[in-house]
Amino acid sequence: MGPGPSDIHASVLAAMAAPTVGHLDPYFLQIMDELQTMLRQVFQTQNQMTMAISGTGSAGMECCVVNLIEPGDSMIACQNGVFGGRIADVAVRAGANVTKLERPFGEVFDPAEIAAAVDQHKPKVVGIVHAETSTGALQPLEEISKIVHDAGALLLVDCVTSLAGLPVEIDKLSIDAAYSGSQKCIGCPPGLSPVTFSTKALEAIDARKTKVASWYLDIGMLRNYWGADRAYHHTAPINMNYALHQALRLVLNEGLEARFARHRLHHEALKTGLAAMGIKYSVANADHCLPMLNSVLIPDGADDVGVRKQLLNDFGIEIGGGLGPMKGKTWRIGLMGEAASKANVILFLGALEHCLNAQGIKPSPGAGLAAANARYLS
User: pTM value?
Assistant: First the structure.
């Protein structure tokens, strides 16, 4: 129940144990085709260049940035948490003139401030995080997308934590490039990064005057492997792709709307239970709280590390601590994929009450469990 990796369904783990074939074997090429089809459904896009990068979500981030950015390009990187800062770092390394637009951790960006920055800096690319894993903040994108595109820029979005847990409407929002990770709401082990590029993004890549800084992540070559040509580029992690294939089957068999509703239901029950225990969320606006990554303020007097250690050792529950300026101030409670369940919510609330009691903090006995159960019954 941390910020990822999430729990893995047994069938996904079993898929990883299937016999390994070659990366150009006809069976594996069929798996690749099916992966692309399923990823398009989950990303809610028709983008032809939709695939799984061989690497974790950070590889997907780097892939998107280095393909869209050439030395000297202007880029706005929006940072309201750790991962927005990483977008800026990668862009600087790729030679971009980066303007870092900042908000305090836990807040989201107002379209007006994006508009002002875009008008002033005339960027080629605007990068922003949809679901900030370090803070639990959900960034609305509809107005921002219109602002960016009206200015003729490209919109790059981090969907690592949101994909398969919240609507990630690539085509509806005209997102030009997006990346995610296999290990969050998709419910697959870490090791692959789903990415998608719009036609406009591919045109920008094709118009480059310089080579992409990364050979391994060069979309110009990768699309020859993932496309009809099947030109050898690198040896893909075969068994990881088996696992992602099965995980995506589970996502789509459940249905996207049903999956989104499940994450929302358990988030609301957890939130109700925590409120009854006097525990508040670090994101003040409830509309901007992620359902799959619950960032809460540590109660006064509680030992951050001590509680997390006892949860893990006594109850087998892992949660995350705060990052950056939130370190020692927040806990990050994951309800992602298989972990988003009533059993986990109830177990966690009871275990947390026990741990707080052990430290002399006395929430009203059973209040969290009663409130969560009442929320489920409603």
Answer: 0.96
